Amino acid sequence: MRIALFLSAWLICLGAQAAPVDVATLDRGTWPERLSSPALFDVASRAEILMFAHTLLASESLDEPALKQRLGLKIINQASVDDLRRQLWQRLLENYTFAQQSCEQDASFCYLVENMDDLREQAAKFQVSDSSFYIGWAGPSAAFHERYLDEQLRKAALFPQISSEIARFGDHERNGDELNDRMFLLTFDSGPSPVSGNTDWLTDYLRKQKMHSLFFVLGNSLQTRVEKSSATDVQALYQGQCVGIQGWQYRSHSHWVDWQSSITRSASLTQSLMPENYAPLFRPPYGQRRSDSQGFFQSQGLQVALWDIDSEDEAGKLKADESANRVLTLMLLWRRGVIVFHDTQDKARIALPWLLHATAESGLGWQDCREAFH
Fold first, then answer.
1. What tens digit of pLDDT does each residue of 168-188 get?
2. If DSSP codes are grouped into helix, strand and coil, which group holds residue 13?
């Protein structure tokens, strides 16, 4: 019976991963203004919040069969979808409240929103007129938010049978909820790269920017990197950065028999190699982990580090510029959070400098990894 259940779960997981899903991105060139001040960041933020709220409200008219058809799923967890929608509405209200604090400086997309009813009312009637300065943005933004919402609803519909970053299993799991408004934490998955690869470029770039970011390493890649160079070289590679773990291999830790060994081996290697950089954090590949793993993580002194903004920069997904545009749009929408790139991909080498340049005058901040998740 246990084997049958395992195979069933594995097949469901495989089918979900294999299903084609369009990834949302938005050309920020359709937005007619540079984010050259905190107030202009708020204008763009209010616009994205209202457009997403409009899309979210429209999705609530779908009954369960219609939602299954839209998401391409035969079975959905409706309760999980409902929970997600409640959380999204609460976050949208909080974010719009922050974003409207600069309405005296620029009243674009400012409406009287004091409570949830007000927000839902504004979302219902939100539209951009044909004569608006922002009309070139409106259509692409609407398409982005519908696609992005489907990404989130699909993950909620599959949770917890297929776990992901969409929800937490307990207090031992963390994301960017505790960050302040306009604060973002940069994280990088799947490293380190081979010698003189993308990890080298990124860590050097971050040091030049005086930024301290969080890298999640794979035990086998870290061990190979040490063998190909030296322990001293690897310590120098991550100087000034924080290093968490992703397990020994980049594979789902939800149904893997050796998932505990994968984590403990990686933690032991990383901590012994880089005690000053080591952060007791586990980033589950694909966001997949066991629902009953809290006791194990607590016994190991580890927390599970999830994310809020996915750059979708993996191979076969978005191009570098599309990834950067997606991240910026989600920064405007969510106003705080943990961002994930992959330092095994060269896309971050293009996306990250563009992102820092685009937001340099926006009044936002980058969370120091040494102070994150405390």
1. 999 999 999 999 999 999 999
2. helix
Every domain of the chain and the residues it spans: 29-158, 173-371
pLDDT digits (tens, 9 = 90+) for 193-224: 999 999 999 999 999 999 999 999 999 999 99
Determine the Cα–Cα distance for residues 215 and 301; give it in Å rounded to an integer: 18
309 SS3 class: strand
Residue whose entry in the numeric block shows the structure tokens 């299993």: 169
Peptide bond into 192 cis (omega under 30): yes
| Contact in structure between 320 and 187 (CB atoms under 8 Å) | no
Q: What is the pTM of this model?
A: 0.94
C-alpha 23/C-alpha 318 separation (Å) is 7
Q: Could you tell me the two tokens for 172?
A: 């031992």
185 and 220 Cβ atoms separated by less than 8 Å: no
Residue 265 structure tokens: 């081996």
3-state secondary structure of 186: strand
Question: In residues, how long is the chain?
Answer: 374
Q: Copy the structure tokens of residue 303.
A: 């927390």
Domain 173-371 has CATH 1.10.220.30: no
Q: Residue 166: enclosing H or E segment and its boundaries? A: none
Fill in the DSSP letter of residue 344. Answer: T
Supply 100's token pair. Answer: 């409207």
What is the SS3 assignment for 30-91? HCCCCCCCHHHHHHHHHHHHHHHHHHHHHHCCCCHHHHHHHHCCCCCCHHHHHHHHHHHHHH
